[in-house]
Structures are given as C-alpha cells and as structure tokens.
Please model this.
Amino acid sequence: MAGDGERRCRRCGDGELREETETLSVELPRSAVTASVSVPVRRCAACDDVQLDASLRERFRLATCCELADAGVDTGEALRHMRKALGLRAAELARLLDLTPETISHWETGRAAPNRAAFIAVCAMVQDALDGRTTTRDRLARLASPEDYPHALAVKLR
Ligand SMILES: [Zn+2]
Model:
C-alpha cells in the first residue's frame, strides 16, 4: 500500500525504490529438493540494493517446511531445515520429543531415518508457527515437564 514502508533506500539513503519480484529458493541437496517462491521486493535504482520484508522471508521459511511436510519429504535434512525455521537448538528439540541430542544428530546427518511420529510432531510445530500458534510446542513442553494432572478441567467450546 502506498505510504507503507520506507520510500528511501536503507543502504544509500538515496535512490528511488522500484517494486519488483524476486525468487527465493531453499535447496536441500541431499534430499534432491528445491523449493522456490516469487516475492515482492523493492530495488534501489541508485545502488541496486534489494529490500525484502523480513517477515516475508520468515514466512517463506515456514511455508517451505509445510510444503516439505505435505510432499512427504521426511529426510533428516528436511527435519534440520524445520528445526532451524523454528529457531530450536537440537538439544531443545530432543527435550521436547523425549529423545537424546545424539538421536536428532543421527537423523539430521543421515545416519538414520527420522522417526515418523517425531517428524510429524515437528511438522505440526511448523504448521502452528505459520498459523501464528504454539499449540503443539506448548503441549510438548508440558509433557517434557510433567506436573500433576488437574482434576477438574473447564472445557471451552470453540
Ligand atoms: Zn540505494
């Protein structure tokens, strides 16, 4: 929308910003998968700097993960891409999934295939993140730090 965003180049402080599209790609070479999307960018006419909305890049990462999940690309490399997109360290993910960091490492380096249930749990966290929720991560975190069960639950119909 006109009036939104910067009108001047961040880098040279000069120059007219032109609306263009740029292709963002993620390549998973060992899995032989490349995912690409065209996104709107602003290119500076003076210095050629390309400015891309940071939230768009973030959404692209998460959307890529969901495409990998939908396409059934359950390689360790895809799992690593998803973990990174979620901003999780391997030790944190291991704790959430009740695994050892070594197991995560074996999967991510291709020494063993990821467990399907663990893979789907990571896919669910990625989908949540894309949808602006943390439901699955919150549930895993609750399971990872067990407390007594509540005895009365107030159920909300949504
Ligand atoms: Zn510039």
